[in-house]
Amino acid sequence: MIGPLLTLMLMGLVALAVVLCLWSLRIARGAERLVPATGRMIAVPDGTLHVVEAGDPTAPPVVLIHGLSGQLQHFTYAMTGMLAGDFRVIAVDRPGCGYSRRESDDHAALDAQARMIWAALDALQVTRPVLAGHSLGGAIALAMALERPDDTAGLALITPLTHPIPEPSPLFAGLRVRSPLLRRLIGYTIAVPLARSSAKATLDAVFAPDPWPEDFVTRGGGALGIRPRGYVTASGDLVAMEAGISAQAARYGELRVPGEVLLAAADALLPPKLQGGPLAAQGFDVTTLPDRGHMLPIVEPEVCADLIRRVAQRVQPSPE
Q1: For the stretch 131-153, what's the b/e string if a residue is b when 16 or more beta carbons lie within 10 angstroms of its beta carbon?
Q2: 64-80 pLDDT, tens per residue?
Q3: Hey, which end of the chain has fewer CB within 10 Å, N or C?
Q4: Helices and strands in the chain, H and E counts
C-alpha cells in the first residue's frame, strides 16, 4: 500500500507544481502587458540588455543602474525626464532584470554584470559616462569603475550597497537559495503566489518610512518583479552579491574617479553609515538625507538628479 500511496502523492505534487507554473506564467504575461518594454535590446556576450535612452545623444552621458529586484522604471518614473535636458541619459535593466536576459546565474557576479553593461555601452558608442547606481546598482557601478577606470567619468551612488551587511534584512531571507535548480523550482511554482500575497508588506518595508506611490506597480515597473524569472534573477543576484562584495570592497583604494554618495538616514535595508562612511576615506563626498528611506529615486528624484549634476560638473565644468 505504501508504494501506490507514495506514487499518488508524487503525482499530486507534480500536478500542483504544473498548475502553479502555468498560473505563474499567466501572471507574468499580465505583468508584461501592464509594463511593456519601451527601449532597445542590445546583444552582448552572455545575454541581451534592455536600455531606454533620453536626451541629446551628443550631450555628456549618464548611465542609470537600478538595484535588487528592480528595473529601469525606477529611473524613468521621474529622473530621466529631469536629466534629459542636460545629458544623454541611458537607463539599463541589469542583466536578468526587467526585459534584459543573462545566459546563466554565473553572470550574476558583480564583475560579470559590470562587463555586460560595459559591452552594451560600447555598442551604443557611449564614452566616459557618469555612472549612477542605486542600491545593488551602486555596487555594480563601483565594479564598472574598477573594471574600466579610464572609461568612467564619475560615480553618483544613491543609497548604495558598497560593503557587506552584517545583519541582512529579513526581507531578503526567501531569496537566499544557492542552488540554481532549486531557485527555478521555487520561482516557477510558489514564488509568484507568495509575492502577490505579501506585495503590500514588501513595498512598505522597501520604502519605509516613506509611503510608496500608488502607481509604482505600473509607472515604477513593480509588476515586473513578481514574475518567475524576477525571483530567479533576484535570488542569483543576492547570492552573488553576498559572495563577492567583500572582495570588491577591499579594492576601493584603487578607485581613481570622482564621486559622491547620497544616503538616507532612515534606510532600513542598507545601514547608511556602513555603506557610505568608508567611501568618504576614498575622497567621496557623502550626504545623508534625514527622515528618508531607501527608495530615493522614487521619493526624492530631484535630489538624486542634483547629485548626478554635481558629479558631472566636477568632471566637465561649465565654461565661465
Answers
A1: bbbbbbbbbbbbbbbbeeeebbb
A2: 999 999 999 999 999 99
A3: C
A4: 12, 9
